C-alpha cells in the first residue's frame, strides 16, 4: 500500500504538522486527521527512487555500461570475467557476452 502525506490546516496534534498514513490507491483523501479529527489536506510529495551509483553496482544488477573514449571506441566499465574491456564499433567480437547476464 502507498504511503501518503497529510498536513494539518490548523493546530497540529501529537502527530506533528505533517504526518503520513498508509492508504489504498482507491481510498478517498482524508479530510480529517485520524488522531485529532482536525482538518487536513493531502500533500504532493517527492518519491524515492533508488538507483545504482557505482559501476560495480550496475554490473551486479546485470547492466552493461559503455563509456565513449574515441570515435567508435568504447570502454566497458562493467566488464565481467572474459569480457573485453574495449569495445570497437565495427568488431562484434568485442561486444560483451550478454548470455552471461540475461537469463530466462
Concise summary:
The protein is mostly beta strands and 104 residues long.
What does this structure look like?
This protein has 104 residues and is mainly beta. It folds into two domains: 3-42, no CATH class; 55-99, no CATH class. The protein has one helix and six strands; from the N terminus they run βββαβββ. The chain has one helix spanning 55-60, and strands at 3-8, 18-22, 40-42, 66-70, 73-76, 86-88. The strands form two sheets. Strands 2-1-3 form a three-stranded antiparallel sheet, with no helix packed on it. A hairpin with a 2-residue loop joins strand 4 and strand 5 (73-76). The longest helix is centred in the middle third of the chain and has 6 residues, at 55-60. The radius of gyration is 25 Å and the shape is rod-shaped.
